[in-house]
Amino acid sequence: MRSADVTPAIAERLLNTVYSVIKIAGPSKFKVGGSVCVSKYKTIFEKDYTPNWTTEVFTIVKIQRTNPVTYLLEVYRGKSVAGAFYELHRDIYPDVYLMEKVLHRKGDKVYVKWLGIDGSHNSWIHKNNVI
């Protein structure tokens, strides 16, 4: 069929024939600005009791309507993460951070290194805030 012979009715029928197999992505589970964790790659011999998710918290920047729905993420400093992710876990407590170790003690305060965050964010906190 020549392109000059195509009418609007035929065009719609052709589109339905060609694109009937393609599934459109469903609704997204997360919203832009939400805090999430990324799934962690585990080897075949890794212990089953280790966590399946990273301890680092990411923020959703953009939702891509692909099949499956993918998300563009950024780190806590606003740096974007390369690639798009579809297997995410909602961070239930976005304001609670895990402590890797205590570096110094001074009176009622402790200098801590946070887990999954680089050393530029080490900070002094009150010892009663450590659980």
TrEMBL record:
Alphabetized PROSITE patterns for the sequence: CHROMO_2
InterPro entries: Chromo-like_dom_sf (IPR016197), Chromo/chromo_shadow_dom (IPR000953)
Ranges for domain Chromo: 97-131
Lineage: superkingdom: Eukaryota
One GO CC term on file: chromosome
UniProt xrefs under PANTHER family: CHROMO DOMAIN-CONTAINING PROTEIN (PTHR46585:SF1), INTEGRASE CORE DOMAIN CONTAINING PROTEIN (PTHR46585)
Name of the protein this chain belongs to: Chromo domain-containing protein
Organism expressing this protein natively: Atta cephalotes (Leafcutter ant)
Gene field: 105625138
